[in-house]
Amino acid sequence: MSVDGDRNGRNIEAELESPAAGHFGIPVDAKCVGCRRVRIKRATLEELEQVPHVDPTTLETSDLTAFKHVCHSCKGTTWWNPVAVLTGLLESEQGE
């Protein structure tokens, strides 16, 4: 899926479909504060400290806060810092 670019050779479609990404929320590229690995994670607007009625396609990374999610490399729940809102994925999901 080239919706949000190559992302350095990562398989974005597989990452998004993986249970490790989560099942609810908007897709963001995020960096684990423990191992520094960047992966797609789903986070709710509430977890990102946004009001529920905000249009997620208008969000900028600077608008978002760190959120807790599982990191399989660190083998536990840790903080993730959003590095990109994957608006292309959001738009393609809304079109489905």
Give a topology summary.
Elements: H1 12-17, E1 26-32, E2 38-43, E3 67-71, E4 76-85, H2 87-94
Question: What would you note in describing this structure?
Answer:
This protein has 96 residues and is an alpha+beta fold. It has one domain. 15% of the residues lie in helices and 29% in strands. The protein has two helices and four strands; from the N terminus they run αββββα. A four-stranded antiparallel β-sheet has the order 2-1-4-3. A hairpin with a 4-residue loop joins β3 and β4. The protein is globular and about 35 Å long. The protein starts with 11 loop residues before the first helix and ends with a helix. The N terminus is likely disordered.
In short:
The chain is an alpha+beta fold and 96 residues long.
- What topology, given as strand order, has the largest sheet? 2-1-4-3
Instruction: Summarize the amount of helix as a percent range.
Output: 10-25%
Overall body shape: globular
Which ranges are low-confidence, i.e. pLDDT below 50, for 5 or more consecutive residues? 1-5
Can you count the beta strands? Answer: 4
Structural class: alpha+beta
Distance between the termini: 14 Å
Task: State the order of secondary-structure elements, H for helix, E for strand.
Answer: HEEEEH
